UniProtKB/TrEMBL annotation, chain A:
One MF term in the entry's GO annotations: phosphate transmembrane transporter activity
Keyword Transport: yes
CDD domains assigned: TM_PBP2
Organism phylogeny: Bacteria, Pseudomonadati, Pseudomonadota, Alphaproteobacteria, Sphingomonadales
Transmembrane segments: 49-71, 222-243, 263-285, 291-313, 334-356, 409-428
One CC-aspect GO term: plasma membrane
Protein name: Phosphate transport system permease protein PstA
Taxonomic superkingdom: Bacteria
Family, as annotated: Belongs to the binding-protein-dependent transport system permease family. CysTW subfamily.
From TrEMBL, chain B:
Keyword Transmembrane helix in record: no
One Pfam family it belongs to: PBP_like_2
PBP domain segment(s): 37-317
UniProt-listed SUPFAM superfamilies: Periplasmic binding protein-like II
Keywords: Signal
UniProt protein name: Phosphate ABC transporter substrate-binding protein (PhoT family)
């Protein structure tokens, strides 16, 4: 700093001290001046490099996070299957082929001992520990195959069924030694195949890593987000419009403004406690339901939308309002024809931030019971459900090691969901964006 | 400008109308929920211990796999204590049907239940669990006794504040390794089992005055025997037992406390610590030689048996799976002795309610 001051100050100072002498032009070639210039440029370079390093560092962290997630999680979308020869004619399941196409087929097959038949087929095909090779859900695959083709009941066939979790992990290169040996043996027989796990994409939580699915949590997140958006967006935008365009400036509106700013900064767990006390306690709403989750998250998201909305509305030039009023538009027409369309990009940015935060939120949802084990996807707003971040939390807590890759896979799904949601919002924002 | 604005107004009003319609729709739902929230429920709900959670979820999964028309049960892992609070808050659709417990219900908790109209409860022992002590594979191969653990972990062993910093301080035969124990929080049933099965035993063995105290002044007994030190030697690791396993792997001197099923699942990464010379294994816990073995229960409200579809089937499924060769044992449960299993099965069959006199 000190080195810079004389450079600017000296000529004036000398001028006032010695009014007789004319102002001497700066001699840029002196040694002192040259070193000052060098220092200036060096400071400039240092600042630029520090900024660049900060960008690279955060990009590096992001790249590390994404690549490690993809690296660990990609295998979560893949399942290992083993070709299981099964002779339904010999197993003689006590069931009519006609019943397989009726509604009670699942129950009929379960009670006909299909699970036992699959286990004994495995023992016959792969030796006495063959039963342990198959996933707990292997018989479900067989059941679905039977339902798709009831004619199988009287034939011998080969069905590719998912393998048990340790074997699956060994096939992917990270399993216990005994499972590695089993995989080597099966590979030698050429019965192992790999494929995209439809189970993971279409089912809900399970206790077995090979049977878990993300669809239940995905749908839970989707329902919760719909409730949050439908509540927080209109209420938030209307509040912002009223506060900005209609409300008188007095102590009450100041108080409201301060409260809204405070609400936006309240830790999310507090909203969870509020949801627990009000929605579950006072209103007696169902525990673990996306409806309650959405209501709770809407409370959390609303202040963010109000604040962003007010700023966006404030940024609309007053000349637009005056012009519209001047040609005879009513205040409501001014708001809906002119102010809101121009403010919408800003409001949507606030909504993106609020919704992204709500999508990743876990703490308030734990309080209202959205962290339960539920083996089926929710079918409505009042059905018990869980959401993606909570599902990730639950799986990371699981005993079985096969859940590690499933946790990473779930994180990938969450990120894709987030990107898709933001993508839509950014598209809408750009569509409405105006420059003047 | 006008052309664009009219177009834009269309889009905006469309948006606003959908949003408002949505809001009213939700409002409708809320009203409905207000009316019917406490009315009926057609899926089973269970809360409670994180130790029993893997077993209850497995049964829930079977229930759905066997009958896809059945609604999937909702199982929450809250810890035994917090679960009891939810369970005992009343009967009806708003309250859980099943409490998973890694210890027996306390008399005070039962009183709470009874006061809220949920006094008719079935108590079903589903199996046994051991609280296992474990260390990393490259750990110091500790050999502990309940007395050592009491002196190392109690807040005031023998009535004086605990000053032990290394294991040698509590027992000269132990290595001079710093005392670092990762365990469950105070609301956990596992923690209660640690207090009851290990600390109390060690307390009463090392201090002859402790035993009579339990009768004459239970609070003083509690403070002396089961209060765990809070100066950072015992680290509360939350209900996340996987976290404890990870901590052990990164810190070979630490000792972890968790349910036996976690030890079983992670035996490639951690070793069991022998207590009084007995290693925690399936056999030693099943025949009660290992001092840290405890029963696991589920509590079911009798009033809900007829009201909640599938609840009876759920209990029958539990009974069908808890045998020594059954699927629950593969998951890490330790089967109860045959006599206990027969008694529990009889409770399910006859719907015998719990006699509060047996609780303490």
């Amino acid at each position: 700093m000190n080195s810079v001051t004389p450079f600017i100050g000296t000529p004036d100072a000398t001028a006032s001290a010695k009014p007789a002498t004319a102002r001497v032009p700066t001699d840029w070639t002196t040694k002192a001046m040259q070193s000052r210039i060098r220092r200036r440029y060096a400071a400039e370079r240092r600042f630029r490099l520090a900024g660049l390093a900060a960008v690279w560092l955060s990009a590096g962290f992001l790249a590390f996070l994404l690549s490690s997630m993809l690296w660990q999680g990609a295998s979560g979308f893949v399942e290992t299957r083993v070709a299981l020869p099964i002779d339904f004619a010999a197993a003689a399941l006590p069931i009519e082929p006609a019943r397989l196409t009726s509604r009670g087929a699942d129950l009929a097959l379960a009670s006909a001992g299909l699970e036992g038949a699959v286990d004994s087929a495995a023992t016959r095909a792969f030796g006495k520990d063959g039963e342990g090779l198959l996933s707990d859900g292997a018989w479900v695959t067989v059941r679905d195959a039977l339902k798709a083709d009831p004619g199988l009941l009287s034939r011998k066939t080969v069905i590719a069924v998912p393998v048990a979790s340790p074997v699956d992990m060994a096939a992917k290169g990270d399993g216990p030694p005994e499972a590695e040996a089993v995989v080597a043996r099966l590979k030698a027989r050429g019965v192992l195949t790999r494929g995209l796990s439809m189970t993971f994409l279409t089912t809900a939580d399970s206790t077995d890593a090979t049977r878990v699915g993300i669809w239940g949590a995905f749908k839970g997140s989707l329902l919760t987000m719909i409730v949050t958006l439908l509540l927080a967006f209109p209420i938030g935008v209307l509040s912002a419009l009223y506060l900005e365009e209609y409300a008188p400036k007095n102590r009450w509106t100041d108080l409201i403004e301060v409260s809204i700013n405070n609400l936006a900064a309240v830790p999310s767990i507090i909203f969870g406690l509020l949801g627990l006390a009000v929605f579950l306690g006072t209103f007696g709403m169902p525990r673990s339901a996306p409806l309650v989750g959405g209501l709770t998250l809407a409370l959390m998201t609303m202040p963010v939308i109000v604040i962003a909305g007010r700023n966006a509305i404030k940024a609309v030039p007053p000349s637009i309002r005056d012009a519209a009023l001047g040609i005879g538009a009513s205040p409501v027409q001014v708001v809906f024809h002119h102010v809101l369309p121009l403010a919408l990009p800003g409001i949507l940015t606030g909504t993106i931030i609020g919704m992204a935060r709500a999508l990743g939120e876990t703490a308030p949802l734990l309080m209202i019971g959205m962290r339960a084990f539920i083996a089926a996807p929710p079918s409505g707003l009042r059905d018990p459900a869980t959401v993606l971040p909570v599902q990730i939390f639950l799986w990371s807590d699981q005993v079985s090691r096969g859940f590690i890759e499933k946790t990473s896979a779930a994180i990938i799904v969450l990120l894709v969901f987030l990107l898709a949601m933001n993508g839509v919002a950014i598209y809408l924002r750009n569509k409405f964006e105006t420059r003047w | 400008m006008t052309g664009i604005d009219v177009q834009r107004f269309g889009a905006i009003s469309g948006l606003a109308v959908t949003a408002l319609a949505g809001a009213t729709l939700i409002g409708g739902c809320v009203d409905q929920a207000n009316g019917g929230g406490a009315g009926s429920r057609d899926q089973i709900t269970a809360v409670g211990s994180s130790t029993v959670y893997p077993f209850t979820t497995m049964i829930a999964e079977q229930l759905v796999a066997n009958d896809p028309d059945a609604k999937a049960p909702v199982i929450e892992s809250t810890g035994t204590g917090a679960g009891m609070k939810l369970f005992c808050a009343g009967i009806g659709a708003g309250h859980p049907d099943i409490e998973d417990a890694s210890r027996r219900m306390k008399a005070s908790e039962y009183k709470d239940c009874a006061a809220n109209g949920a006094g008719q409860i079935l108590e079903i022992q589903v199996g046994i669990d051991g609280i296992a002590f474990a260390e990393a594979k490259n750990g110091p191969k500790m050999q502990l006794t309940p007395t050592d653990l009491y002196k190392a972990l109690a807040a005031s062993p023998g009535g004086r504040p605990n000053t032990a910093r290394v294991w040698r301080d509590v027992n000269p035969a132990l290595p001079p390794v710093p005392i670092q124990v990762y365990g469950p929080p105070a609301t956990s049933g596992t923690r209660d089992a640690l207090a009851e099965l290990i600390l109390t035993k060690g307390c009463e063995a090392s201090d002859p005055a402790a035993k009579p105290l339990a009768k004459s002044d239970p609070d003083a007994h509690k403070a002396l025997c089961t209060r765990v030190r809070e100066d950072g030697m015992y680290v509360d690791a939350g209900e996340n037992d996987n976290l404890i396993v990870q901590k052990l792997q990164s810190n070979p001197n630490a000792i972890g406390v968790f349910g036996y099923s976690y030890l079983e699942e992670n035996k490639n990464d951690v070793n069991g610590v022998a207590i009084s010379g007995v290693q925690p294994t399936y056999a030693t816990i099943a025949d009660n030689r290992y001092p840290g073995s405890r029963p696991l229960y589920i509590y079911v409200k009798k009033a809900h048996l007829s009201a909640i579809p599938g609840l009876r089937t759920f209990l029958k499924l539990y009974a069908a799976n808890w045998s020594a060769t059954g699927p629950l044992v593969k998951r890490g449960l330790i089967a109860a002795p045959p006599a206990v299993q027969a008694r529990s099965a009889a409770i399910i069959a006859n719907e015998t309610i719990l006699d509060p006199a047996v609780l303490s």
